[in-house]
């Protein structure tokens, strides 16, 4: 019995150094690498008020999100934009610029950087995060407006100057424009009212949705609608030309004048009195 106890004590003394090597000392940490912390969403706001002279040119481009433009009398313009990014790196890769002079205002992202990479519908730069813009502009009504490259719907109030809209991934609604020269490349329904036609007329093309165009009953114009996937109807009196066909309509409104050209529309076209 005494020999067995002595043997066990000897064995325990032999194992103690090995156990001490395997077990971390109190207060020490495991050498296994720690996971990187999850990226934090970034949210910043742009709030700015400027003065614009009558007839100023306003350009908006490269935004990812819905754009709403309210208008009023006066010369004050308010810019309110909320920017949300998946992380700081994504935010810095797609900077927003607000540039103004006494007779112009430009709101845009870095166009060169946008051309160098492809953005998906949610504004995600493939594997490198997203940047989204929530845009509200309150502008004088006596401006000229150019909107292009917007990944979201566009809503515009009454404007007495010219309006040009293209490259929109969403619906477009213009309450009233003094004149409009071009509405192209729109992936959604289009509704626009025109106070008058300019000398350059109006071109509507590449619309993936129905089109509602409201113009004064006193309008004098040449209408040329072709290549549309839907019916065409007009409330305005006109003298038609050629044999009527589905998706096509050519004729003279009033005594004729600037051309209203419509082509490549995937939906019906409705021309109504303003």
Overview of this protein structure:
- Mean pLDDT is 84; it is low at 3-9 and 11-31.
- With 274 residues, this protein is mainly beta.
- It contains three helices and 19 strands.
- It has a domain at 38-152.
- It is 12% helix and 50% strand.
- The protein has a 19-stranded mixed beta sheet that branches.
Brief descriptors of the model:
disordered N terminus; 19-stranded mixed β-sheet; mainly beta; 19 strands; 274 residues; single chain
- Give me the strand/helix succession: HEEEEHEEHEEEEEEEEEEEEE
Instruction: Provide mean pLDDT, rounded.
Output: 84
**Helix content class:** 10-25%
* Radius of gyration, taken over Cα atoms and rounded to an integer in Å: 32 Å
In whole angstroms, the N-to-C terminal distance is 114 Å
* Poorly predicted tracts of residues: 3-9, 11-31
Biggest β-sheet description: 19 strands, mixed
Identify the quaternary structure here. Answer: single chain
Q: Using the alpha-carbon principal axes, give the shape.
A: globular
Number of DSSP helical runs? 3
Could you give the topology of this structure?
Blueprint lengths: L1 H21 L19 E10 L5 E5 L5 E6 L3 E10 L2 H6 L2 E6 L2 E6 L1 H5 L15 E10 L3 E7 L3 E15 L3 E15 L3 E5 L7 E6 L3 E5 L5 E8 L3 E3 L3 E3 L8 E5 L5 E7 L3 E5 L1
Parallel strand pairs: 2-6, 2-8, 3-7, 3-9, 8-9, 9-10, 10-11, 10-12, 11-13, 12-18, 13-19, 14-18, 15-19
Antiparallel strand pairs: 1-4, 4-7, 5-6, 14-17, 16-17
């Amino acid at each position: 019995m005494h020999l067995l106890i002595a043997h066990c004590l000897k064995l325990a003394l032999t194992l103690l150094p090995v156990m001490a090597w395997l077990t971390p000392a109190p207060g020490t940490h495991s050498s296994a690498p720690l996971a990187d912390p999850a990226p934090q969403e970034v949210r910043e706001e742009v709030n700015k008020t400027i003065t614009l002279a009558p007839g100023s040119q306003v350009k908006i481009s490269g935004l990812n999100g819905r754009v709403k433009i309210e208008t009023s009398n006066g010369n004050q313009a308010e810019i309110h934009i909320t920017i949300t990014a998946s992380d700081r790196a994504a935010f810095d890769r797609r900077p927003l610029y607000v540039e103004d002079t006494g007779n112009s205002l430009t709101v845009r992202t870095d166009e060169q950087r946008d051309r160098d990479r492809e953005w998906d519908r949610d504004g995600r730069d493939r594997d490198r995060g997203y940047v989204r813009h929530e845009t509200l502009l309150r502008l004088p009504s006596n401006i000229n407006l150019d909107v292009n490259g917007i990944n979201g719907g566009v809503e515009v109030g009454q404007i007495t100057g010219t309006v040009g809209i293209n490259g929109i991934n969403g619906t477009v609604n213009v309450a009233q424009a003094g004149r409009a020269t071009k509405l192209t490349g729109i992936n959604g329904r289009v509704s626009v009212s025109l106070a008058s036609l300019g000398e350059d007329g109006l071109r509507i093309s590449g619309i993936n949705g129905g089109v509602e165009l409201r113009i004064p009953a006193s309008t004098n114009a040449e209408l040329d609608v072709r290549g549309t996937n839907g019916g065409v109807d007009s409330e305005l009196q006109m003298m038609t030309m050629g044999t009527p066909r589905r998706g096509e309509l050519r004729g003279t409104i009033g005594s004729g004048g600037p051309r209203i050209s419509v082509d490549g529309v995937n939906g019906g076209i409705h021309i109504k009195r303003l």
